[in-house]
User: What shape does this take?
Amino acid sequence: MSSGSLPPIESVTGGSHGVEAGYEQMLGLAARYEQHAGDLVEMAGLGVRVVADGDLLESAVLSPLSFADAEVQVLGATAGTDGLAVRAVGIEADALGVRAVVAAFRASDALSRHVGEAIDHTLGRVVLTGTVTALPALLVAGGVGHACWSSLTPKEQQALEQRLTDGLGALLHEHPGLAQHLLNSGGGLVGSLVPGLGLLDPGDGPVGQPTTNDAARLMALLLGDDTDYSVARVTDVEGGAREVLPESLRALVEQLAATNDLDAGPHTEALHGAIQVQQVGEERYVVYLPGTDDMRPVPSGGLVRDMETNYQLIGGTDSAYGRGIRAAMLHAGLDGKAVTLVGHSQGGMVATSLAADPDFTRHFDVEHVVTAGSPTAQVAQLPDGTHALHLENRGDAVPLLDGEDNPDQPHRTTVLFDDGTHRIVDNHDLDRYAAGAAAAEASGHGSIRDQVARMHYDGYLGSGPSGPVSTYVITR
Assistant: This one.
């Protein structure tokens, strides 16, 4: 992709122009049908009451023929074979038909999801069985491979590593669905390893089977499931988000990138775990939440953005990062204020999780969530007053870690763009997500357009200076 072009948008799901929004519009139409049918029934009853009025009946003797003709006309228009009552029944039947169609579509969607979950769960069990069966051959192959690797020169080893990495990156970029299904099979894999474990069986998957979320909860427990944290405000910080109102989605992601880079330079270890709070209005704030700092499988030390937190978030449990964010926001005076949460990777995971947490939303009015490269499907539902925009880059493995697609909801839009290469790590970079944000905004898609317009209307996007930016460091 040239520097002057924007990456293509591959798909947009959910939002105001998504499938679920269409279902809601169909149900709204059915409700209007039902209201209209009720109005017709009421009008039909009024006609009968008018004809049966005592004063009118007494006056019938003055002109019996005219009265009889009027009575026939009124009763025919209200209760006749083509009258209001019959028309009301037809309109009510139309409303029931619309509701039945929506129910059938939703049932079909649910069945498709459950079948997919069941297949992925079975895949996990098959993978484990096949691995155990082939273990002797794998051990022999591993020994031979190690011997061959040892015979290579350092330069040859480096070249082979590069070829393997490029091959894996190409596979992920060309077939992201395959990686997603493999990740979603984690429930079946762990369910086979730990049969009957109460935390996993029954799980929250199809037919009570464990899912990847259950497997993540188990991993968090094995690592100690630590939620202790400490929060400190840091002043005189160099760099970070600027005191200017983001004018676009791209500018918003670039502000997040500036927060993310606070601990990137030399002598910045003290800023590991930093988040920033930007005041963009008298009662309105943006909170910038960077992603994982410690990628080691078994974390240690005081870094709060580690793999344990990732397992906790995918498993849907409390985390030290989330608790620290809440404490920092309370310290910053955001209690009762309107906020937008903007997060990259793990930061987007925790942003979405907090927006769905009633304990969190009792303190903060989360109006918007914007995520970049974050797995968020484990959060099944956001409050109606919260609007989310999820940016995902094709070839980025991180958004696939939840093992499934994001829910299609009228106030939740997922944008998949293609700025991916064969370099897996590069695909997760915030520079690529800044380009993806610009491409999303330029696409003119209805769901994106409505989301961005709402952010402008609510005062989170605009022009000119903003209020101060505060920095907080969260550690274990």
Notes: Confidence is low (pLDDT under 50) at residues 186-203. The longest helix spans residues 84-133.
